[in-house]
Design a protein that fits this description.
single chain; alpha+beta; Glutaredoxin; 2 domains; 3-stranded mixed beta sheet; 9 helices; 7 strands; signal; EC 1.8.-.-; oxidoreductase
């Protein structure tokens, strides 16, 4: 059954000469004006058709370029990013994680090697998280595990425990094989390329992009209240979680 046309629209019809639509190009009879969005647009009565589904809004795209052992990176990921992701509907926020940061890529005897700001342990942590993402594929599967690693006592030693809690279906052996083999190196090379391609070039980590852009203002807003920033930028219907948020102290970043 077609949606009921509001009384206001029917009253408008009564004022229109017989056989004419409410707008040029409206070829629909009055009882069909609210039957679809195309009909409502053609007849210029969208605002009078409350039963029409709203067009989906694009998610806010957030990119986090970080290091696994950088204190400021860990604080942002744990305190801001993960909590915001939990509070908001999935369609509001699209997150890309790139663990690499201020690392350096070198070719040693024909094989790629990586030197990280916080030492070999950080390079291992970066690769574990890159391989975890590669094996899990689904963001909602691997992000809680990364949260567990970054909020725990050791990013590199707690993988098994974090998998048991958040993603027991994942095979830790496959992740270990990735870390120890060519796949892990290839993943880190890709993260190096993504990081080096940033425009403007990153100067510190965490380095945050919002809808593909980085500015000092966006960075400061994201670190102060990511929830508030996403709620402000999202063009769709706002959920209850967007009612308000407090701004925590912004931690100092890890400069190059």
């Amino acid at each position: 059954m077609a949606p009921t046309v509001p009384l206001a629209v029917l009253a408008l019809v009564a004022l229109v000469a017989p056989g004419l639509g409410v707008a040029p190009g409206c070829d629909y009879p009055a009882h069909r004006w609210c039957s679809s969005r195309d009909a409502a647009v053609a007849c210029q009565v969208e605002s009078s058709c409350p039963s029409l589904p709203r067009p989906a809004a694009a998610p806010v795209e957030l990119g986090l370029y970080y290091e696994s052992l950088c204190p400021a990176c860990r604080e942002f990921l744990v305190m801001e990013l993960f909590s915001t992701w939990l509070l908001l509907p999935e369609e509001m926020l699209d997150i890309t994680l790139v663990p690499y940061g201020n690392a350096q890529e070198r070719n040693v005897s024909g094989r790629l090697d990586f030197e990280c700001q916080h030492g070999p342990e950080e390079c291992l942590g970066n690769m574990i998280e890159a391989c975890l993402m590669h094996e899990a594929k689904n963001f909602s599967t691997y992000f809680p595990v990364i949260f567990c690693l970054e909020s725990g006592s050791s990013v590199t030693k707690n993988l098994e425990a974090c998998l048991q809690i958040y993603a027991p279906e994942l095979d830790s052996g496959r992740i270990a094989a990735c870390v120890q083999g060519d796949t892990g190196v290839a993943l880190m090379h890709r993260n190096a390329q993504l990081t080096e391609a940033l425009d403007p070039p990153h100067q510190y980590v965490p380095w945050i992009t919002v809808n593909g852009k980085h500015t000092s203002e966006l960075q400061a807003q994201a670190q102060a209240s990511l929830l508030g920033l996403v709620c402000q930028l999202y063009q769709g219907e706002k959920p209850e979680a967007c009612g308000g948020s407090k701004a925590p102290k912004i931690p100092a970043g890890c400069r190059r």
